[in-house]
Fold this sequence. Notes:
disordered C terminus; nucleus; phospholipid binding
Amino acid sequence: MPSEGRCWETLQALRSSEKGRLCYHRDWLLRGEDVLEECMSLPKLSSYSGWVVDHVLPHTQENPPSSETSASSRSASALDQPSCVPGSPVRTPACSPSSSATPDGPEGKHESRHTGPMVLQSSRGIQVEGCIRMYELVHRMRGAEGLRQWQEEQERKVRALSEMACEQLKRFDERKELQHHKELRDFREVMEKSSREALGHQEKLKAEHRHRAKILNLKLREAEQQRLKQAEQERLRKEEGQARLRSLYALQEEVLHLNQQLDASEAQPHGDLLKLDPAALRTRGNQLCSLVSGIIRTTSENGFPTAEDQAVAERALQEMRDLLTSLQQEITRAREDKRRQDEEAAREKRQESKMQQGPEVPREAPAPSQGPGGKQNEDLQVKVQDSTMQWYQQLQDASSQCVLAFEELTNSKDSQVKKIKMDLQKAATIPVSQISTIAGSKLKEIFDKIHSLLSGKPVQCGGHSVSVTLNPQGLDFVQYKLAEKFVKQGEEEVASHHEAAFPIAVVASGIWELHPRVGDLILAHLHRKCPYSVPFYPAFKEGMALEDYQRMLGYQVKDSKVEQQDNFLKRMSGMIRLYAAIIQLRWPYGSRQEIHPHGLSHGWRWLAQILNMEPLSDVTATLLFDFLEVCGNALMKQYQVQFWKVILLIKEDYFPRIEAVTSSGQMGSFIRLKQFLENSALWSVSPPSPQGAALHHLLLCRRPCCLRGSCLRDE
């Protein structure tokens, strides 16, 4: 500050002044107010003045009186010398009274002769210096006396304090000893009390110990009895398990024997007349044999078979017997048909021969064999079409190639590469996780973020920028993880909240439109987790582990434990609902001129193929209900009359097949599908007017061509 600068300048000027250069003696500073008091007091003659007159003044008279002028001048000059300034007698011995008090010696005379003319020039100066010297001597004596008195006083105080401290220490020691005796007495009392309590507690513990010993003896006897009982139960369980195992071996032997009979029966003549597919029967027979073999293999690894395993094997045996019985009945029927055909041919030959001999009235040929209700018996497919399997395999190959493309990124040990991988995975999966039914206007923001990431633009994730250009394999990795996350959302989110299928599907459809490879990866993940979305029913192969086969069917197997059927159906339902929503929705902000990359035609193909395959218990009913509930309205608007034909086909032809394979404990999905079909049929009876005639024709016409839609096209 400016004021501080001026202050320092002032102090520097004061220090450079004449008074500032003066030196002050430290003794004066210590003496303090006593010096000032002496200076302010009135001057008075000291009691030692007489001594000064007697010893100092006579020396001044030895000088000759004729030299007063020179003496006065010399005394004046001597007064101006530094040696005559009052000081310590140690530094100026010539001016001290002791030196002037011994003039008799030769050295003193010599010194007096030499110093006399220089110091003792003026009586007035000598008087003043003597007074000063005497004052200093008196003051020193007074100070020494005061110091001695102060020291004595301090010694007295120290002795008094020491005596008082000794007395206090004695009192403290007495109190300490008294307290120690009291604590010792209290401690002894506490110890005696504790010993009495310990003796009582010991007696109590002895009593409790005797009581617990009795209880433990009883428990030991009970445990021994329980052990013997468990050993007996274990022995019985092993016997039952061995009996079940022997029964399983017998069942396996019988199943294999029946399978051999089944193979031998297929080699019978007249195979072209059989309505059953021998290859399907043979495949089913091999599956049953593999199922029983898998049960025996699993039980041999884990212990003895359970009653449930035996029941499954018995059902497989019963199904094998039914297959053989149905095949034998079909062979018998084929033989009868062949026999009747031979008889008819012979009859026709006889009639021709008779007609050649003479005219007769011909008889009508019998009608072909029909099933109940006048419908011709037809068997559905067991395997999926070859074109569909090729399409399915192409998608799986594309998915495998994508995984191989970013294998180096996933297996890298570099921390920087790992960080890039984690950031890309978060940037791809977090936006999909944020899609929900209440997202609203955020759907476009989520779509733009995913589209920017796939287009190579940087996006914000976790507070920093992320882009697929950070790694050469980043785009493949993001596309794979994004498709996997979409399918996982259908497996989890849509399975729990059915309405979430539509916002997820509209974003997935928009991304599919702009990035077709993501759509192919979505289909690959969907087909792998839900093979029924192909539709594809994996077959059990010889030598395949049962857990692997269950995984192929879509079940989750963890620690050799298969998930419950309800959870499995819930997951399959979520994925089918997501697929049904994707094929009918389009991104509203995209181009309407381009067609949907995977539109309703694929849904119509899926529905047609699954209706051409044998239904599965509890699975087919669930999938049909979920698929029709989500996109049935869109299919109706697209295909109109053809859709109602399919609904009637399901209700009257396919639904009884589902009912035949549905057990009593799996009626939930069956009842839901039944109610849905009944409500749909009621609505179709009174449709809108433009389609009334066509639907009325559909309800009345039962020809196969009508079910294919050729009648309505002709009309």
